[in-house]
């Protein structure tokens, strides 16, 4: 990659730099534009791409007890993720389970987010340009809210002392739940303590916070395809007597089927890496790979290669689904 | 009639759902005591004083956040402008590959990128230095200005370029007098998107700062062992106001629906 492959004008410049050794002549002959692109290419390779390669390389390394780790090439870290460190003598599914929770939360979170974002965005695109811009400011501002702040908000809303459980108790729903026996059912679902409902810690709170996190992203992703739907088609259908639902079913949904699927995939990939919500709202037994990646690399266990192996598994999962979404985008383009 | 009311109602409900946790955080900042109660007890503005004056740890982290966000945004523009320009002008295979590599960190789970960066900075001995934090955010968020600048370049009227070229303007002159002014608002939007997202970013900074400095989001997470406190909520309010100002300005001076990919033909 040392010779930036930037178009034909290099050939002309090289003529001007005749006389010196080939490489020096090449450098002298480069125009400022080529030098800028060369530097940028180097930066991209070093800061944007190298980290991913490093994660992959380190994941094959080996931890040394009581010390750091050394380079290596074996698959033991991967084996440990899927079937445990003592395989083949015994099988532990501890990390496989974490992978399962990672995928499950991300699937549910992205489905819920798109489910609510789709009607919202559909209604939004029917408004005037001005109202669209105002909604977009609102959505973008909430989109940029840090996960830390979002978790802070839901923590207050769901906390036993001053949140939803306290509200339910105050208006008497809690005692009604107790009388009718629903509280026992909720306890089976891990959503209640003997005295009141509880959401911290629960998988429900985890998934809902994750859905909340990507809801604004879902709106932004769906905004473009929904606002490009041909209005005249809808008008035509209306004049021919089609109701709103018929329009939705026969015109809108077929037109945006692929973008919706694509958005689902992208949100799913985004949610694979959620960290704060899971550490805060999920019980330790229900936590995900990102949490244990952190534990391995910076936290208690300090096993960088093992953390890297888990990160690679996350990376591969993400890569597969991004590949799918790119395929969908290409399909959608061909159809358009 | 009923349908319109249903639409409005649904949108307002969504807005409330989105705004609720944010509003709760903002109101909790008024708490007089050290705990986050809602509704706030013994309301006071003292926590604002704590955040901005009394507790230097917060002002310090705010300063770090600002330095990192502004530097990362500047670097991101400097890196992505030539890439977007090259792709728009030449559209070679090389420029396409470069553009997609530049978008890679934003597309993949940030925690993986954070892990990789922490390895990279460890190897070159820069882990925990501010400049590596800046470079990390530059790389993570460069995809945003890359997209806005590309949209801006595509919106330039080719007729202007042809006219300038026939009148004998050189590439440099065209760049200076037509392309740069016409894409300025898109470049600025990209800049501010990076600033805002860098402010709020958590996980990558969590890995690359290695506890030697803290941004506001990191400081909040680090203080979590003692639970959320109203002073943290002041940080949330500050950031929320910054985002609102930035996006309102983008909407005022740029075409926000178009930036988000709306059909440009509709102007009602």
UniProtKB/TrEMBL annotation, chain A:
Name used for this protein in its record: ABC transmembrane type-1 domain-containing protein
Q: Note the PANTHER family from the entry.
A: INNER MEMBRANE ABC TRANSPORTER PERMEASE PROTEIN YDCU-RELATED, INNER MEMBRANE ABC TRANSPORTER PERMEASE PROTEIN YDCU-RELATED-RELATED
What are the ABC transmembrane type-1 domain coordinates in residue numbering? 99-325
What GO terms in the biological process aspect are recorded for it? transmembrane transport
Q: Where in the cell is it found?
A: Cell membrane
InterPro entries linked: MetI-like, MetI-like_sf
Q: Which UniProt keywords apply?
A: Cell membrane, Membrane, Transmembrane, Transmembrane helix, Transport
Q: Which organism is it from?
A: Roseibium aggregatum
Report the domain of life of the source organism: Bacteria
Instruction: List the top taxonomic levels of the source.
Output: Bacteria, Pseudomonadati, Pseudomonadota, Alphaproteobacteria, Hyphomicrobiales
The UniProt entry's GO CC annotations, sorted and at most eight, read: plasma membrane
Family listed: Belongs to the binding-protein-dependent transport system permease family. CysTW subfamily.
SUPFAM superfamilies for this protein: MetI-like
Per the record, membrane topology reads:
Multi-pass membrane protein
- Statement: the UniProt record of this protein carries the keyword Metal-binding: no
Enumerate the transmembrane spans. Answer: 35-58, 103-123, 135-157, 204-226, 247-272, 308-329
Q: Key word Transmembrane present in the record?
A: yes
UniProtKB/TrEMBL annotation, chain B:
Give the GO cellular component terms, alphabetically.
plasma membrane
List all membrane-crossing ranges.
Answer: 12-30, 66-85, 97-124, 130-153, 233-251
The protein's matches in CDD domains, at most eight in alphabetical order, are given as:
TM_PBP2 (cd06261)
Q: Where in the cell is it found?
A: Cell inner membrane; Cell membrane
What is the species listed in this Swiss-Prot or TrEMBL entry?
Roseibium aggregatum
GO biological process, any: transmembrane transport
What is this protein called in UniProt?
Answer: ABC transporter permease subunit
Major site of localization recorded for this protein: membrane
- Write down the InterPro entries for this protein, in alphabetical order: MetI-like, MetI-like_sf
User: Which UniProt keywords are listed?
Assistant: Cell inner membrane, Cell membrane, Membrane, Transmembrane, Transmembrane helix, Transport
